[in-house]
Amino acid sequence: MAFPYEWQIGVRYLRAGRRSGRNSFISFMSLVSIAGVGLGVAALIVVLSIMNGFQRDVGARMVAVLSHIELYDARGVLPDWQATVRDAQRNPAVQGGAPFVELPGMLLQEDIMKPALLRGILPQDEAKVAEFMRGKNADALAALTPGAFQIVLGSELAKALNVKKGDNVVLAMPSQDSSVANVMPQTRRFTVAGTFEIGHFEFDSGMAFIHLQDAEQILHVNYPTGLRLRIADANQAPQVARELKNSLNGDYIVRDWTQRNANWFAAVQSQKHMMFIILTLIVAVAAFNVVAMLVMSVTDKRADIAILRTLGASPPSIMKIFVVQGLLSGLLGVLAGTIGGVLIAWNLPSIANGIEQLFGIHILDKNIYFITSVPSQLLWSDVGGVVGVAVALSFLSTLYPSWWATRTNPAEALRYE
């Protein structure tokens, strides 16, 4: 037959007949090795998908409120920010720009005090660069009026301060008058004009917006201190930032959103790599089941090996038989694990919601993970890497038992047969 006999015998050994208890146990061991590899592969695919989804969702929420690119003048203010926006838009990737002023301070309401970062904006221009300014968020920010000293709070910040629309809060921040010997914080009362919600706990609990003119008045400046730029593809922000740095006339400091969160992204990537290594060890442990199964199979098939040798089978052919048997076990496990892992990764948010409702628990604490739902993003490159590693480990686990089979002495094996 065209199909090599080594493959035929290897497949037959994998199926392991029911002639004796030993053969039945070897068949059980085959199932255990397949299941072990499958579970390891599925776990690796699911965990990597969760890490990808976490990075995607948190990154998207960051981009929704942070600038794709921030631009500062070395002098501290931007007197003609409109001209700077026009210069920046000569780069085809830049879609719009908006001025801003940032004020770190403390917000007080009666005996409650919370730190917050206030951003002074022009609502009509901010809508050009901020993705979160849609729906209710846009309506709340559009209500900001210059000179009225109104403030729009993050939803979690408003809850922490126990305030609602129409209530008053007090901003306390370091005095801008450096000539005062006994520096006392300056305060300003604001009226809550509404709240916004981004879905990222860090921003919802620690950020607020006021009108640009009010922020300039508090800082005693006449111009914005920075410029936020929006580009077509946020992933191209580092490249576009370098291009703007080289093309703009003036002494500008240009920073993209990945630099502002570089430590966070580096930590996520590091965790993903470590999880890949740790879960690969699980697949490696499962591959030891293949080794155990093959050792038992070689011991049980010593007479068969001896007969094949006397019929002219070469040691490499004997080795190939058991490599086929072990590798097929690994491949079946990899196939089952890949299918299971992909299906779970695709439906993980629904599965997680069902578990939360069934047991009345909340899997992700927004105070720690920034998001409240379990994310998942399946990348076929990750699937390919997992499959490649699992197949390689399965193949390596077959080598020693298969080589050991070639050491069988036909005369010794047939003596008591």
UniProtKB/TrEMBL annotation:
GO terms for cellular component: plasma membrane protein complex. It is found in: Cell membrane. One of its GO terms (biological process) is lipoprotein transport. Keywords: Cell membrane, Lipoprotein, Membrane, Transmembrane, Transmembrane helix, Transport. Residues 30-246 form the MacB-like periplasmic core domain. PANTHER family: LIPOPROTEIN-RELEASING SYSTEM TRANSMEMBRANE PROTEIN LOLE. This is Lipoprotein-releasing ABC transporter permease subunit. It comes from Duganella guangzhouensis. The lineage of its organism: Bacteria, Pseudomonadati, Pseudomonadota, Betaproteobacteria, Burkholderiales.
